[in-house]
Amino acid sequence: MNGEYSLDTTEGMAASGDPPTNNAVDDYDAEEALERQREEENKIKIKLKSFEGGVYECGLTAAKMSVMVANMLDALQETDLTKIATREPIPLQNDAVTNKALEKIVEWVDHHWDDPPIDPDFDDEKERRNEELSHWDKQFIDIADQGELFDIIAAANFMDIKGLVEVGAKHICNKIKGKSCTEVREMLKIHNDFTPEEEAAIHKENEWIYAKD
Amino acid sequence: MAEEDHNYYQQMAKKPKMSSIDVKSTAEECYPRDSLDRYGDDLCEEILSYLSLEDCFRVECLSKQWQRLVFKRQHVFDVDIVLMEKKVHHRGRHVGQTIAKDVNWRALETVVKKCPNITSIDMIVNSKDTERLFERLMNAYNDSLTAIHIRFMNCDNYM
């Protein structure tokens, strides 16, 4: 029905005899149609299974934000997408994908499913990287239990959800900002594997950066 | 059908399509859950790529993994970080923003040594050292540079 409607509009424009506008309308319609299709597909719920066995439901478009899940679904070559919903849950076999982590990941993709896709080759890459996290993302990623936070980022990396890895990375880097070496090491529980001499040598090379404070 | 699905997914999961999966060796498994040491190099590099160049120098000394990764994805060199405020009192008047800055040459050499992947340079022309600075930077990054952003400052102490 939607298809018929957009076809009518295009014909109406064509009758007015303006080919360039006609093309523009075609592009616009194609975009609209794709958006509507994504919206429809997201109403189809698929099941994801954590490493611990917990099963979580997620919209199809949202789930496809995970390149790994998208590839698995593509490989099924299922033309009738509604059948995907009746399939067995997709197991995510990495120990970072705990129940808690997967629950949060599903929450994130459900909120972000209609984001424009990230294109790393695109010009605004630098701009995007420097962009501050949205209020929603900040609240989402502000997790008291650091083990859980690291699970979510590792799980998002395993599932290849670039946007969520970026949110996690920015959050960690925001926390590092302005802290001393010792504070960061304590916070992120990083084991110092330098000898005192090696560490002193690095400090000496970099002392000018501390002098800027 | 269900059985088939399961087997299929199992097989798919064993064939990772991306390179950035952390393969955990037995040695890595002993790291605590809440320690960033648990991450492999790929993910750690990705996270550290969001640090500012200045922060990179602050945290290089954290561990050998960090030292190895922290500068890898630093592509922009804002020359301001190796400039020092000149300790001049211009007739007792605070000259603020327009004061000329000296290049800390030792710091510049440290940046050049540690950051091999610079593709873009941001610099302010406000010092008598500008020419020499420019020459050194072109020498270091001639093959990889794709952009230089230069701001000209109207500077009281320009000589």
Automatic annotation (TrEMBL), chain A:
Q: Enumerate the spans annotated as SKP1 component dimerisation domain.
A: 162-209
Which Gene3D superfamilies does the entry mention? Potassium Channel Kv1.1, Chain A
Arranged from A to Z, the UniProt key words for this protein are: Ubl conjugation pathway
Q: Which residues form the SKP1 component POZ domain?
A: 45-112
GO BP: protein ubiquitination; ubiquitin-dependent protein catabolic process
Q: In which pathway does it act?
A: Protein modification; protein ubiquitination
Q: Matching Pfam families, A to Z?
A: Skp1, Skp1_POZ
Q: Which domain of life is it from?
A: Eukaryota
Q: Does the keyword Phosphoprotein apply?
A: no
- Looking at the record, which segments are called Disordered? 1-26
SUPFAM superfamilies in the record, alphabetically? Answer: POZ domain, Skp1 dimerisation domain-like
Identify its protein family: Belongs to the SKP1 family.
Q: Protein name, please? A: Skp1-related protein
Organism this protein belongs to: Oppiella nova
TrEMBL record, chain B:
Where's the F-box domain?
A: 41-70
Protein name per UniProt: F-box domain-containing protein
InterPro entries registered for this protein in UniProt: F-box-like_dom_sf, F-box_dom
Gene3D superfamilies membership = 1.20.1280.50
Organism of origin is: Oppiella nova
